[in-house]
Specification:
The structure holds 3 protein chains of 3 kinds.
Chain A: H1 2-11, H2 19-25, H3 28-34, H4 36-66, H5 89-96, H6 98-128, H7 136-148, H8 151-161, H9 167-171, H10 186-212, H11 216-224, H12 229-240, H13 242-257, H14 261-266, H15 278-287, H16 292-321
Helix pairs in contact in A: 2-3, 3-4, 4-16, 5-16, 6-10, 6-13, 7-10, 8-10, 10-13, 11-12
Chain B: H1 3-27, H2 67-80, E1 87-93, H3 94-101, H4 111-119, E2 122-128, H5 133-143, E3 150-154, H6 158-163, H7 171-177, H8 191-198, E4 206-208, E5 215-219, H9 220-224, H10 226-236, H11 246-256, H12 279-287, H13 308-320, H14 333-341, E6 347-350, H15 355-358, E7 375-378, E8 384-385, E9 388-389, E10 393-395, E11 399-403, H16 410-421, H17 423-430, H18 442-446, H19 448-454, H20 458-467, E12 469-471, H21 478-493, H22 499-517, H23 522-530, E13 538-539
Parallel strand pairs in B: 1-2, 10-12
Antiparallel strand pairs in B: 3-11, 4-11, 5-6, 5-7, 8-9, 9-13
Chain C: H1 4-33, H2 56-63, H3 78-109, H4 115-124, H5 131-140, H6 147-172, H7 175-183, H8 188-199, H9 201-217, H10 220-225, H11 233-238, E1 241-242, E2 246-247, H12 249-269, H13 271-280
Helix pairs in contact in C: 1-12, 2-12, 3-6, 3-9, 4-6, 6-9, 7-8, 9-13
Classes of the chains: A mainly alpha, B mainly alpha, C mainly alpha.
């Protein structure tokens, strides 16, 4: 890496003497290029615009709707929702809505099983790939393919695999009456397996990158001191990977919380509501029940709680770094 | 019209439809029709429009004195006034597009060809799946995008759509162009049924394109096999016959489960049990719990779900699932039909349109499925009350068209729909060997091409079932209510809840929805719906 | 010390087992894509490999109809494929460009210290929690069912991903290199464009790949924000049912295979960068 950096530097020609004159003649933009505040402003402007665009109106509308009973069934446009103002009843309802909390519980359950499973599997695989061996690149490419498959397709594949008469039961020598997707407990297991299949590779990739980042001389030193590979791994590699591990876990947890596509295709939340995670719950409330003001209240609450968690997490991370 | 009268007309309907059977027999089940001219390259005398190019095309032709002709004339008038669009965009079920776009037979004109030839207005058809199409409609309605001139979707959802302001009232167009839906010889049989299919709150918000009544099909030859007869007699103590009551259905389901009569291990219950598709199965069982009907709501508009009879029905429904094939909870009606064609189940009770894919011969003369030639159809079942049986079917889904309030071409869109749903064009659509639209008009059942397609045995049972159909929910809040009940039923089927717990929970959810919609005429709508149920019983 | 041979055997055993688990579902999809209709469902005995291999499924999804099938579709694959490609690429470009610029400004110029948290929040909650206003807003600005409307939302929802990934890369680039260039008279812009950006090129490529995969995989946003003209591949796939055989598994599998091609090709194109790009973040540990 350092080689590349050095190269780039020598490749970059030093600024010619006439640059200053040029700059003046090019006016405002030339000035910007030399002023870190101004340049910074222009650098963040597009992203901030996008953020404001997606945040301001939707938040305002959610807040507004969440304080009413409005549903599209009222036959009036949303901006006239004030006609059914309900002074926060949606929020009271949310606190006592068993279905919502159950969906949340299932989402947490899914995260609590899937993310650690993906982490451990990814870590194990990364450990296997730390050293060079024949066919490493080939196996590496194969292991990464699940990431490239569209989640909706993954849902379809696992829907087919887990049919009673499908290949999984056949391979495992189970009777065709052994239901997966329509069994209360195994349906969630099937969903977790599908998610794990697809996302363990990402874990593997991130963790492997973290491991390869550990300087080789430290490992050699460890080995000279008589440490086995495993000791090396535990004593030297893992402690150095803390932040990579944290990133990987956070990344997967966040995405896992939002899981929708795979479940939507595999079970539509069924049997009953057994695999209905928070996203599917919201989908149902939005399109089947048309309960839009309630969805708005839930949306805002989720947003608020997660923001709190994120802010705490970030400040914690910053403190650790500092 | 009184309810008694209603039933008598429904019964007359049955008499007339036997004519279709005779005609179909003449037609030889798809072979060339005997007494017709070989080629019809021109309109029959007096006709000005309609399909050409196949034997019998004149039966689908029309002139200005007929419904289709009036629609075409209307378009021409719009064109002359410069108000006709170049294109109409229609949201349709994927499975129905071919019915409109493809000719029923090589060389014949497809319905769409006829329309294009006579009007020049392009019809852009966008597909959606049965269980998701209404979401697409609501999305278009609520976000104000207005991508479609015409929506189609489940008939049940009309209430939700009208409440959301997503459909226009076509009453004026109906008065102006006089469609032939109400022709008692060719259209629907009686006022109540007409109201059900074409009106909501007494206004023409919708145009029925489908007759989605659940109809029973079974493997006739299986019931006639000596070894089956013998085994059933031994086990049940009575000879096997087509069932008349739910009790008999369940006995047959139980009997066949796990047995092998030469086609592998069977499962007894072919009825759909899955999410969305299994809901009408439950409604149908529910409707016959009392005589003449067991309504979904009582007189005051309160749900009847967790009454003793309601719970009993749920218990029966859950028990019948023991006899269903594995994966039945993942089935759509297509997988359900497939299990019948593989001779895995002895019967199925669902929408009729798919039967034509499994019974009959392909153009190359090979059978369409293992079940070809072995199938039959029987009447709806009910329960015995004294000397009567209240046979009940249910009308659920039934593809229905609405015109978007955002369409800039409402009149042209209406005219297209009138043309499409008039008895001649619609009968031509029914001749198609593909598609989800089911026959329901009188003229459909009298047409040999339809009989050849849907099989003569069904030409009697379909109208018989329609006449005994109870309407499922069709008022604002329906989507939420159906969804709530469906979810609880699935919970009971997967043993998460007992049937009673599930019915209690569903009752609670329904009451909550009704409370929230109370001010919006939901009680009135419930009462109005009760009035459209059939009242008669058949001799036991 | 253990014999290296034993360690090697164990390593290969585990690696091959892992690959088998990865391949098992893929193989089912691939063979399914070549199976004719009667072999799609396994009700009457299951087979891993098609008894009568056929290209009919591909023919059907590509042209919208196929020889010997009574059913056809309202459209072929071309429209959805183009829609997916265009919106994914534009969305990726939007996210990567804005994410790179803003993360650089935050990492180097130290402005907008709130930005990292704000973009993170954007990625945190389920899109369904705010989809209603977004649908209303998109309809208001006429963006529903347009290529730019979908690209815009893709760019926005993947911006946090691009931002955070690029920020870690920029954080790893030694400030000394840039300072040296500054001293020799380069403008801030020039330092960014000619020095830092080339250094993080592998990271940029990796970031683009991930963002592209995210956009390409999207189902929900396209489901809610398209109607007919810009329906993307995953949505198109979910509508593949026919009255003849129910869910068209063979066609869906064929489509799934086709849908896997762009990310794989993209991945292969930047493979060289991929490995470097990922080790980049851990460089300075």
């Amino acid at each position: 890496m350092t080689d590349a950096t050095a190269e780039t530097i020598t490749d970059t020609p030093a600024e010619p003497a006439s640059a200053k004159a040029n700059r003046r003649s090019r006016g405002y933009w030339a000035g910007v290029a030399h002023d870190s505040r101004k340049l910074g402003f222009w650098f963040v402007a597009p992203a901030v615009l996008l953020l404001l665009f997606i945040v301001v109106f939707p938040l305002a509308m959610q807040l507004y709707l969440s304080l009413t009973w409005w549903t599209p069934l009222d036959g009036v446009r949303w901006y006239r929702a004030y006609e059914s103002f309900n002074s926060g009843d949606n929020y009271a309802r949310l606190l006592t809505d068993g279905a919502l909390w159950a969906a949340l519980g299932r989402t947490v359950l899914l995260m609590a099983i899937a993310v650690p499973a993906q982490f451990l599997l990814g870590l194990g695989l990364a450990y296997l790939f730390m050293e060079q061996f024949v066919g490493r690149k080939f196996f590496y490419s194969i292991l990464l393919t699940p990431m490239m498959i569209v989640p909706a397709v993954v849902g379809l594949i696992f829907f087919l695999l887990f049919q009673g008469t499908g290949p999984v039961n056949d391979t495992l020598r189970l009777p065709t009456s052994f239901a997966w997707l329509t069994d209360v407990h195994r349906a969630m297991l099937a969903v977790i397996i599908a998610d794990t299949w697809q996302w363990t590779p990402l874990m593997f990739l991130i963790l492997l990158a973290g491991m390869l980042g550990v300087p080789a001389d430290q490992l050699t030193a460890g080995r000279l001191l008589g440490a086995s590979n495993w000791q090396n791994f535990c004593k030297i590699v893992l402690p150095r990977m803390k932040s990579v591990i944290a990133i990987a876990l956070v990344l997967r947890s966040v995405e896992c919380f939002k899981i929708f596509d795979v479940i939507f295709v595999m079970t539509k939340g069924g049997p009953g509501v057994e695999t209905e995670t928070i996203s599917l719950f919201l989908y149902k409330k939005t399109f089947a029940d048309l309960d839009w003001s309630y969805v708005a209240a839930i949306g805002l609450t989720i947003l608020f709680s997660l923001s709190l968690i994120a802010a705490r997490g970030l400040s914690y991370a910053a403190k650790r770094k500092g | 019209m009184s309810i008694e009268k209603l039933n008598s007309t429904r019964r007359e309907f049955l008499k007339t439809s036997t004519g279709a059977i005779a005609a179909a027999a003449l037609g030889g089940g798809g072979g060339p029709l005997v007494s017709l001219p070989l080629q019809a390259a021109e309109y029959a005398p007096g006709m000005t429009g309609g399909p050409l190019g196949f034997d019998g095309a004149e039966r689908f032709q029309y002139n200005s004195s007929m419904s289709e002709g009036r629609a075409i004339d209307g378009i021409k008038a719009l064109k002359a006034a410069g108000k006709a669009p170049k294109k109409l965009t229609v949201l349709l079920l994927d499975g129905t597009i071919d019915q409109i776009r493809k000719p029923f037979r090589e060389g014949a004109m497809s319905p769409l060809d006829v329309w294009m030839r006579e009007t020049g207005i392009e019809i852009e058809m966008i597909g959606g799946t049965p269980d998701d199409i209404f979401k697409k409609v609501m999305q278009d309605v609520t976000t104000g995008d207005g991508a479609f001139d015409v929506y189609t979707g489940p008939w049940n959802s009309t209430g939700d759509l009208v409440a959301s302001g997503g459909a226009i009232d076509c009453s004026d167009f109906v008065k102006k162009y006089k469609p032939d839906w109400n022709d008692r010889e060719r259209g629907v049989t009686d006022d109540a049924f007409e109201k059900l299919l074409y009106t909501y709150n007494n206004k023409n918000y919708m145009i029925g394109l489908d007759g989605d009544t659940l109809v029973w099909y079974y493997l006739r030859n299986l019931y006639e096999k000596p070894e089956v007869k013998e085994a059933f007699l031994k086990e049940a103590g009575r000879p096997i016959d087509v069932p008349n009551t739910w009790e008999e259905v369940d006995a047959i389901s139980k009997f066949f489960t796990g047995k092998d009569f030469g086609n592998g291990k069977m499962y007894g219950n072919g009825c759909l049990m899955s999410r969305f598709w299994g809901l009408p199965t439950f409604y149908m069982r529910f409707a016959s719990m009392a005589f003449p009907n067991y309504y979904f709501f009582n007189d005051e508009g309160n749900p009847n779900l967790n009454t003793d009879l309601g719970v009993q029905c749920a218990e029966e429904h859950v028990r019948s699932f023991e006899w269903s094939p594995p994966d039945a909870l993942n089935f759509t009606f297509l997988e359900g039909w497939n299990s019948l064609w593989k001779l895995q189940v002895p019967q199925i009770c669902t929408y009729t349109a798919i039967a034509k894919y499994g019974d009959g011969l392909k153009p190359d003369g090979t059978p369409k499925s293992k079940a070809t030639g072995l199938m039959g159809s029987h009447n709806p079942v009910g329960r015995r009350f004294g000397d009567k049986i209240n046979r009940r079917a249910v009308m659920y889904y039934s593809v229905t068209a609405w015109i978007s309030p955002k369409s800039k071409n409402a009149e042209a869109a209406y005219l297209f729909l009138q043309w499409l749903s008039s008895t001649r064009t619609f009968t031509l659509i029914m001749a198609s060997p593909t598609g989800f639209f089911d026959p329901f008009q009188q003229a459909n059942f009298k047409e040999p091409l339809v009989a050849a397609n849907y099989q003569p045995y069904a030409m009697k049972t379909i109208p018989y079932s329609i006449a005994r159909s109870v309407p499922s929910l069709n008022f604002g809040g329906q989507t939420a209510m159906d969804n709530a009940l469906d979810e609880e039923l699935q919970a009971a089927l997967t043993k998460q809840k007992t049937p009673r717990q599930a019915m209690d929970a569903a009752q609670g959810k329904w009451e909550q929805i009704i409370r929230r919609q109370r001010g919006k005429g939901i009680i009135e709508a419930i009462k109005a719906s009760r009035a459209t149920w059939p009242m008669g019983g058949d001799p036991a | 010390m253990r014999t290296p041979l034993r360690a090697l055997v164990i390593r290969y055993a585990f690696v091959i087992l892992a690959c088998a688990v990865v391949i098992y579902p893929l193989l089912w999809m691939i063979t399914m894509a070549f199976k004719p209709f009667p072999e799609w469902t396994t009700g009457t005995g299951m087979t891993w490999f098609p008894k009568q291999p056929t290209l009919q499924n591909f023919e059907f999804v590509i042209f919208g109809h196929a020889q010997g099938l009574v059913v056809s579709l309202d459209r072929g694959i071309v429209g959805p494929l183009a829609a997916s490609l265009i919106t994914s690429i534009c969305g990726t470009a939007l996210a990567v460009v804005t994410g790179t610029l803003s993360s650089y400004a935050v990492a180097r110029f130290g402005i907008m210290s709130l930005l990292p948290l704000s973009v993170l929040q954007l990625r945190l909650f389920p899109p369904l929690a705010v989809m209603i206003p977004v649908m209303v807003m998109w309809a208001f600005i006429g963006a529903v069912d347009t290529w730019w409307g979908l690209s815009l939302i893709y760019g926005i929802v993947t911006l946090p991903f691009a931002f955070w990934l690029m920020k870690t890369f920029f954080d790893e680039v030694p400030v000394e290199i840039e300072d040296a260039a500054r001293v020799s008279g380069c403008s801030y812009w020039r330092v960014f464009y000619r020095i830092t950006l080339p250094i993080v090129k592998p990271g940029l490529a990796t970031c683009a790949l991930f963002v592209f995969i995210l956009n390409w995989s999207d189902y929900l946003l396209a489901l809610l924000l398209t109607q007919k003209n810009w329906v993307t591949l995953p949505i198109y796939m979910s509508t593949l049912t026919s009255p003849m055989g129910g869910q068209m598994y063979g066609m869906k599998a064929a489509l799934g295979l086709i849908a896997a091609i762009p990310p794989v090709v993209f991945g292969l194109l930047i493979q060289k960068h991929l490995v470097r790009g990922l080790t980049f973040g851990a460089l300075k540990q």
